[in-house]
Specification:
Layout lengths: L1 H11 L2 H4 L6 H18 L10 H7 L4 H20 L25 H10 L3 H4 L4 H15 L3
Helix pairs in contact: 1-3, 5-6, 5-8
Length: about 150
């Protein structure tokens, strides 16, 4: 598929680090516009075709924001052993299964990654098979169509 070869690979490279839309709201909006423009060109849709929502859903593609969430959550799952609150202390608190940032920074990539993971539904957090989590998370993001 042309989209994945020429656009997606550039879009997804290192997105967990630089894709924080909280810090770069204007840049993210521009990237999403470019993503929609690329899809319109590849699938021969005119510029009058305002919404690409149907194309994203039909082809199972993630929007830029959804891709950022997807990659960040997968990074959090891979690093969760070192980020769990219960690994920092032995107290049986209500948030012991949440991920926490041990650093002192604010809005760093690890802060965003842990916050996104903590906002996942309990159903998704209970999946321990990484491949199954990837499939279900991607399906949920495509259905939700987060812009």
């Amino acid at each position: 598929m042309v989209y994945y070869a020429n656009f997606f690979s550039h879009l997804s490279f290192g997105i967990e680090i630089w894709g924080n839309e909280h810090c770069h709201k204007i840049l993210c909006k521009q990237i999403f516009r470019q993503q929609k423009h690329a899809i319109r060109l590849i699938y021969f849709k005119s510029a009058k075709y305002k919404s690409c929502r149907g194309i994203f859903k039909k082809l199972g593609m993630l929007t830029f924001t959804s891709l950022f969430i997807y990659k960040s959550v997968i990074l959090a799952v891979r690093q969760e052993g070192s980020l769990r609150a219960k690994d920092l202390h032995q107290n049986n608190t209500r948030n012991r299964d949440r991920l926490v940032n041990k650093g002192k920074t604010f809005d760093s990539p690890i802060d965003i990654v842990t916050a996104l993971y903590n906002k996942l539904s309990d159903e998704l957090k209970q999946i321990h098979n990484l491949e199954k989590l990837k499939r279900q998370l991607k399906t949920w993001l495509i259905e939700s169509f987060i812009v």
